[in-house]
Structure formats: structure tokens, C-alpha cells
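User: Please fill in residues for this 226-position structure.
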């Protein structure tokens, strides 16, 4: 049951991530539905082949994907800066730059595959059924959050500049994860019991440092000092 709840929370998080881009950019409803539909179709695809993939193979693939993780984080940061700069100079590029945060990226694809694999093992369902359930949940999460953010944009007078800020913050979050996850996995594999407390105390400090730096960085951009 906890596994299912964790999967649903993960789907909600990635759906909100895509919804930020769709909701704060100036795109049509048809495009929003197409983005949600892409997640649904990919989930069906993963579900159809999930019976041929084991957990060890997936973990090995994920461990090799940290470089892609870092690339996605830097792409989000740079695209967010570009979106804000163009908006402040009188040009709206959100119809194009929203793709960096809304379309299924390698991190989202890994989350889709992991969700299908874990749910299949937890509920003993066929791959197609699991893919349908995961895809439907992703579709609802993406579309619903997109319209919620679009309503907030109209209600509170937000602009694509808000999307740029969100992209940079998510990029910093991805970058933080790419830096901390390998260290955590290495610590667990080495069973460093005696030093575990000291190392786990460093993690919140690193997270705080990244958040402070991100806030300072975004404030400089807002003041056009960069």
C-alpha cells in the first residue's frame, strides 16, 4: 500500500512540473491535452515491455543516467533564464520554451518506467493494465494542474516570467539531487555506520546552501544584473 501511495505522489509531482509549463505559458488547450496524452502513451509503451525488464537492470540503467540528470537540470536553468530575459525585453517565447519543463524528459521517463515496474510487482497486474493506470494518472495530473496554474495566472496576473523562475528552481532541485543521490547510494553500499550521522548532517546544509544560492541568483536576474 505504501508503494502505491509513493507512486501516486511521484506522479502528482511530475504532473505538477509539467502543469507549471503548460499553465504559465501561452499555449492552447489542445497542446495541453497533447502533452498529457504523450505521458499516457509512453506509460502504455513502458507497460507493454515491463514484463521483460527486471529491477536490477533498471537500477543499473538509472545509475548510468546521472549525466543526463545534470544535463536536464542545466537545460531547465538556462531555458528559464532565456524565458525571463525575452519576456522582459518584450518578446514571449513561452510557446517554445515550455517544452523544456513540460514534455517527458529522461528523468520523467525514468519515473514512468519505475512506476510501471513497482506497481506491477506490488499489485501483480499485467503490464498493459499497469501502463494504462499509470498513464491515466499522469494524464489527469498534467491536465488538471495545467488548468489550475492557468487559472492562477489569470487570477493573479502572472506571466511567463513566473514559468522561467519555476524552471530555474526545478533545475536547481534536479542539480541538487544529481549531486546528493550518488553520495547517498555510495554511503549505503559501503555500510558506513560509524560516519552515517555525520554525513547525513551535511546533507541539509548542502540543500540549504543550494536554496540560498538559487534565491540570490534569481534575485540578480530579476534586477537585470546578469
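Assistant: Residues filled in for all 226 positions:
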Amino acid at each position: 500500500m505504501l508503494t502505491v501511495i509513493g507512486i501516486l505522489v511521484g506522479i502528482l509531482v511530475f504532473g505538477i512540473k509539467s502543469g507549471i509549463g503548460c499553465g504559465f505559458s501561452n499555449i492552447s488547450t489542445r497542446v495541453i491535452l497533447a502533452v498529457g496524452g504523450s505521458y499516457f502513451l509512453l506509460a502504455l509503451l513502458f507497460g507493454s515491455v515491463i514484463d521483460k525488464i527486471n529491477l536490477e537492470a533498471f537500477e543499473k540503467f538509472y545509475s548510468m543516467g546521472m549525466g543526463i540528470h545534470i544535463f536536464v537540470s542545466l537545460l531547465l536553468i538556462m531555458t528559464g533564464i532565456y524565458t525571463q530575459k525575452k519576456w522582459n525585453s518584450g518578446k514571449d517565447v513561452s510557446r517554445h520554451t515550455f517544452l523544456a519543463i513540460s514534455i517527458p524528459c529522461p528523468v520523467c521517463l525514468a519515473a514512468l518506467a519505475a512506476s510501471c515496474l513497482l506497481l506491477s510487482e506490488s499489485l501483480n497486474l499485467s503490464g498493459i493494465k499497469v501502463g494504462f493506470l499509470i498513464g491515466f494518472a499522469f494524464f489527469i495530473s498534467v491536465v488538471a494542474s495545467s488548468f489550475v496554474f492557468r487559472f492562477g495566472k489569470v487570477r493573479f496576473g502572472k506571466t511567463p516570467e513566473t514559468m522561467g523562475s519555476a524552471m530555474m528552481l526545478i533545475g536547481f532541485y534536479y542539480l541538487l539531487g544529481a549531486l546528493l543521490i550518488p553520495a547517498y547510494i555510495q554511503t549505503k553500499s559501503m555500510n558506513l555506520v560509524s560516519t552515517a550521522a555525520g554525513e547525513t548532517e551535511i546533507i541539509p546544509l548542502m540543500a540549504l546552501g543550494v536554496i540560498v544560492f538559487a534565491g540570490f541568483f534569481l534575485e540578480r536576474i530579476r534586477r537585470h544584473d546578469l
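For context: Residues 56 and 62 are 10 Å apart (CA to CA).
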